[in-house]
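Before relying on records like the one below, remember that each one covers exactly one chain. Contacts with other chains, cofactors or solvent are not represented anywhere in the record.
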Amino acid sequence: MKNIAILGSTGSIGTQALDVIKQHPDQFEARVLTAGNNSDLLIKQAREFSPDIVVIANEAKYDQVKDALADLPIKVYAGADAISQVVTNDEVDMVLTAMVGFAGLRPTIAAIEAGKTLALANKETLVVAGGIIRGLCLRHKVAILPVDSEHAAIFQCLNGEGNNHIHKILLTASGGPFRRYSSEDLRHVTAEQALKHPNWKMGAKITIDSATMMNKGFEMIEAHWLYGVAPKDIQVVVHPESIVHSAVEFDDGAVIAQMGTADMRLPIQYAFSFPKRLPLQSERLDLFKLGSLHFEKPDMERFPCLRLAYEAIEQGGNMPCIMNAAGEISNLAFRQARIGFTDIADVTERIMREADFIKNPTLDDLFATDAQVRKLTDKAIQEIR
């Protein structure tokens, strides 16, 4: 039995992780559940899965959650600090970090320092602090099992390859809902349109990041830190069917790819059960029905967020942190109809030029950078309005 803490249990990854646990009650148990604001769903999950601990980050909803679970032997806590504290619980074997955004960094670090295996779904952790996280994992002998479909695919492609050198990573991208839009068309995109991803069911932030290809830039940076491959050797490939989840090319020219349907439960379950493969009730890939697959080069002029990600990781230091914070605030502003779709990249690029650059940041520097950039970005957005 593997005891799991799910950080962000009410989000897309969290709810699918609980479905995996439901399918394998003899293998996995949810011991800790945390949520940001969705207290109603957190209460429902707690009553169904009977964890030891639940945490609601929004302290204003603490009484609601505590009262609703008063008849059960579940400890209820509130606040961001509580999330970092509960991951150190002795009963927890693995921590699934499915929180969205920079907020996932601190509890991820707490889990590493407590020696917990990480099932990593929080992109921002490696984007913002990849070098620091790698160092902490080595120091505390903590394994990271990737949950993103692309990084889980790469991980599977590398199984059994030992020390064979990676020539290139082929990081696939659906291209999002606006793959064929012109630059002018993109100026008029609404949040409602952008939130309709053609292949994947995801949370609001990541769906917008996918539409701008910022998400693929994040994944490129993650792949750099996870697999030690230089950014120039990570090639983004637009693949609209989302069947090939990523591939690895080796020095002899062999390309090994992982394929499957667009179901996030598969990489979640693989992270939970590694190195075993367990049965999963899901749609199976039918190549005859599929017929054909298509691959294209990404257009970094129409989707400059991908370009910005390459520039950020090449510059290094706190620049990926700057890019992430500016992107988070711009993404939210677009969803709130305060800026346009193309403004997301424009604002992010502007802040990357204006914010204070630190070549060798400490963790404290990164938290300070995040705070500074959020203020700068808010100001830039107000000037647009």
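The chain has 17 helices and eleven strands.
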